[in-house]
Amino acid sequence: MLTAGVDLAADPAGTAVASIEWSATGATVRLVAVPADDQAIVELAGQVRKIGIDCPLGWPDAFVAFVGAHRGGGVPIPDGVDARQWRRRLAWRHTDEVARRMTGLVPLSVSADRIGHTAMRCAALQTRLAQAGCGVDRSGAGAVVEVYPAASLKVWGLPWRGYKTARNQAALGVVVDHLEQAAPWLDLGGHEELCRHSDHALDAVVAALTARAAVRDQVCRPDERELPAARTEGWIAIPTGALAALLG
Q1: Which end of the chain is more exposed for a tag (fewer CB within 10 A), N or C?
Q2: Cross-referenced Pfam families, in alphabetical order (predicted)?
Q3: Which residues lie across from 50 on neighbouring strands?
Q4: First to last CA, the chain
């Protein structure tokens, strides 16, 4: 079985993809590539059981309604609601708040941060994936699942911050060291060097590992009350089991 991961950026140059082949006793990284365009991602999705994408799959429902109301002439101003709390509901999705409660991490706001550029690309990518026959359900029930590599690393007890950008390559190498120690069954093969030099490559591998957790139902899922929002806003699959539990 194969799973894949995508560290998505607004442009192909900063985008990485990875795939992992799984057996009962181990896992082998079969692909790590940077850069990656939409066509490469669509082709990879057609070869795997599940693909994890590190990018919000949607915008907060409240934000979408807010923009529509503003375009129509004016936004409703809620009574008795703290202004900061009101803006928070526009900036972060329900799944972002769940991630905050579960991990202590604060995801970037898709409606009020630069990640919105990447989400625009991701919206078009979801259409391409659907047109290619890849099941897209933003709640994670289909072939695509939203992932958050920093949260996955933290849940698995691995270093999860301070390894981004070229100036932090030493820290990036430490993350790879810890991953290899925690998962001796994971063979990075000829892709280890790239993972030590590109945080995009490493995040793509972590995204593929998280996709495996989703296949094994070892991630948080939206309950019946949360499902409608998850299907429009997206839902971050945060691992609920140990890294070693990905085998089997």
Answers
A1: C
A2: DUF429
A3: 3
A4: 11
pLDDT of residue 3: 98
Is residue 146 very low, low, confident or very high in pLDDT (cuts 50, 70, 90)?
very high
pLDDT tens by residue, 63-80? 999 999 999 988 877 777
pLDDT per position as a tens digit, 104-119 = 999 999 999 999 999 9
Residues for the chain: how many in total? 248
CA distances from 71 to 44, 65, 68, 74, 117 (A): 38, 10, 5, 7, 20
Rounded to whole angstroms, the Cα distance separating 50 from 19 reads 10
CA 150 – CA 108 distance, rounded (Å): 12
Cα 7–247–210 angle (5° rounding)?
Answer: 20
pTM of the predicted model as reported, rounded to 2 decimal places: 0.97
> What's the average model confidence in pLDDT over 186-191?
96
- 202 Cβ contact partners less than 8 Å away, ≥ 6 residues apart: 163, 172, 175, 176, 195, 196
Which of 148, 195, 216 lies closest to 3 in space, CA to CA?
Answer: 216
Predicted confidence (pLDDT) at residue 178 exceeds the cutoff of 80: yes
User: Domain segments of the chain: what residues?
Assistant: 2-57+94-246, 59-92
pLDDT band at residue 209 using 50, 70 and 90 as cut-offs: very high
CA of 212: how far to CAs of 31, 39, 46, 57, in Å? 15, 22, 16, 19
